[in-house]
Amino acid sequence: MKLAFSIGMRFLKKSKSQTALIVIGIVIGVAVQVFVGSLIEGLQQSLVDGTIGSSPHITIVNSEDNESFADNDALYSDLKEDERLTAVAKSFSRNGFVSLDEENTKAVLLRSFEMSDADAIYSFEDSLVEGALPTETNEVIIGTNFSEDNDLTVGDTLNFIASTDKAEDLTIVGIFDLGVASLNESWVVSELATGQALFDEPDYLTSIETQLDDVFAADTIATEVNTQIEDADLVTTNWKEANESLLSGLTGQSISSYMIQVFVLVAVLLGIASVLAISAVQKSKQLGILKAMGIKDKTAGQIFLFQGFVLGTVGAVIGAGLGLGLMYAFSFFVKNADGTSLVPFYFDTQFVILSSVIAIVASTIAAFIPAKNSSRLNPMEVIQNG
Amino acid sequence: MGKLLQLTNINKIYGDKIKNQVLFDVNLEFEVGSFNSIIGQSGSGKSTLMNIIGTLDKPTSGRIIIDGTDTSNMDKNQLALLRNETIGFIFQFHHLLPEFTVMENILMPYRIKHNRVSPEAIERAEYLIDMVGLSKVKDNGSTEISGGQQQRAAIARSLINEPKLILGDEPTGNLDSETTQTVFNLMKDINKELKTTFILITHDKKVAEQADRIIEIKDGHVIMDIPNL
Fold first, then answer.
1. What is the mean pLDDT of chain B?
2. How many CB pairs under 8 A join A and B?
3. Do the chains contact at A290 and B108, CB–CB below 8 Å?
4. Residues A56, B74: Cα–Cα separation, whole Å
């Protein structure tokens, strides 16, 4: 083994241009793979994040539309303990009206949460442009559009009329910008107790909203959660049901990314195999001498396997670095009009390691052909031919 | 003295459809420590005989016993081991590995055998290098020395594993007459000093005549086998 390795290394060192050629081939292959893979993955992440990052992934609701259900602490704590769920928030949401003056009323959606839980989903804290989150009963926050359209600011009160005809003055303690105009226009957000009291439904919820770590598993996890829920009236919905076109777009992207990667890999593999095959022919005289001196066929073959392995390793390491460098440069230089990166710098360590390992394995496999040829080589032919 | 090598009824036929017999019932024995030469025209079958003796080729029929071991039923790996430990090769075109230095080339059979280089091996290599007069160029690349020096390096290499048999295929074939004599004398000295058996193939009568025994091959038959006293 050691002998085969050191002979292989010496052969590589002594044919520098050939070695460089193979390494450059692998470097480019791995770099393209890492770059394209990371770019598309990053693109998908930012797309998914932008689309569903601030909305629930799995929601538990009453099977009858808009009906509330009794707050069930056992279910809530079960969901809280589920490690796949990164956020669980009880919610009570109802339509109502805000009366601005004698003639003017506006329809709004009152969304009541336990603020600390809901913040994990909606990031209210981070989206506040003014004021603070509601902490007391009858405190609310409103969206920027609603605030601008109706000249409302922090400290003002809203006269909220519930569908039960109950009216209450709510104090605006903050203004948020969730980045979606329709939400900024219609949402009035309060603590859970505020909503429940306004609609006379204490200890009732309209939904339990959750977020996941693995967003693409939403449908399977939702099905599992569904079976765990004992209350037959409750059902789960998940984001995938509502976003099928986004999903098929993402799948298409992934497939094209895999296609590119596979073809790059095949091209690299063929390149390595052919250059190594040539080098094995060039070294046939040396192999003949070594065989006459008693080197075993297996050891002779190992010379080329080691070469493939070492070339693959060096190429993969440099290639992965170059690929990440390209990804960084892309995220740094290619920007949106507002100065943010078109695709944020992103890489998945596992993906980079996997690409490198595949390149190393592929290079070693590519070396099998010359290895096989060299172990078959008959020393007599070489020696007789001078 | 005992027999190092016994060839019994060696026949070699090439080709399946058109048969071409190159060796006919060759019977030869070689004594331990002897210095032999095999002469013959090109095409006489002497190189085939050499390859068979060196276990690089197998006879169509017949037995070869090297150092008491019958090689007929040995597989490729066993033959490789036998070559490595028992036989040293010197080829006409010296056949050093161009990627390695003189010293590394000389140590190569040792590395093939032991997979590593011991201080004793380096000591022995130094001794052999000194014996063949290459001390000054031992760290040169093997292509950076003259033809005569390369041939002497090949002789040192063939001796590193202390083989019982050295096979030379035209070992002086591409050297000028002065260098030929130097290299030949070196082999004679080694033969005397280390009691290594030599079998040299040559078409150079002058070289052959300096051996202890001359065997002539013609058309696949041994036509002459005389001690040279």
1. 85
2. 72
3. yes
4. 74
pLDDT in tens, B21-70: 888 888 888 888 889 999 888 888 888 888 888 888 888 888 898 888 88
**Contact status, residue A187 vs residue A172, Cβ threshold 8 Å:** no
Residue B178, Cβ density class (10 Å: 0-12 exposed, 13-18 middle, ≥19 buried)? exposed
* Integer Cα distance of A171 and A136 in angstroms: 10
Residues from chain B contacting residue A297 (CB–CB below 8 Å) = 76-77, 80
Which positions ≥6 away from B7 have C-beta within 8 Å? Answer: B26, B27, B28, B29, B52, B53, B62, B63, B64
Burial class (CB in 10 A: 0-12, 13-18, 19+), B92: buried
Q: Do B99 and A11 touch (CB under 8 A)?
A: yes
> Do the Cβ atoms of B109 and A293 come within 8 Å?
yes
Query: Could you tell me the CA-to-CA distances from B50 to A285, B70, B180 in Å, in that order?
Result: 19, 17, 20
Residue ranges of alpha helices (H) inside A141-282 are: 144-149, 181-186, 192-198, 218-228, 239-242, 244-282
Residue B44, min C-alpha distance to chain A (Å) = 15
Could you identify the residue written with the tokens 């992440």? A45
Supply A76's token pair: 């809530």
pLDDT digit string, tens, across residues B172-189: 777 777 778 887 888 888
Residues of A in Cβ contact (< 8 Å) with B47: 384
ipTM of this complex > 0.90? no
- Identify the residue among B112, B150, B155 best suited for mutation to test binding to A, counting A beta carbons within 10 A and taking the highest: B112
Nearest CA in chain B to A300: B112
Total domains, chain B: 1
Q: Which domain range does residue B49 map to?
A: 3-227
| CB neighbour list of residue A216: distance below 8 Å, 6 or more residues apart | A240
Q: Which residue of A2, A290, A294 is in closest CB contact with B115?
A: A2
Residue A296 to residue B116, Cβ atoms within 8 A:
no
Question: What's the pLDDT tens digit per position in A69-111?
Answer: 888 888 888 888 888 888 899 999 988 888 877 778 888 999 9
Q: Which residues in A lie closer than 8 A to residue B84 (C-beta atoms)?
A: 293-295
- Range list of H helices, chain B: 46-53, 76-86, 102-114, 119-131, 147-159, 177-194, 205-208
Domain-by-domain residue ranges, chain A? 2-51+246-384, 68-205
CATH code of B46's domain:
3.40.50.300
Distance from CA of A14 to the nearest CA of B (A): 6
The reply to whether residue A2 touches residue B84, judged by beta carbons under 8 angstroms, is no
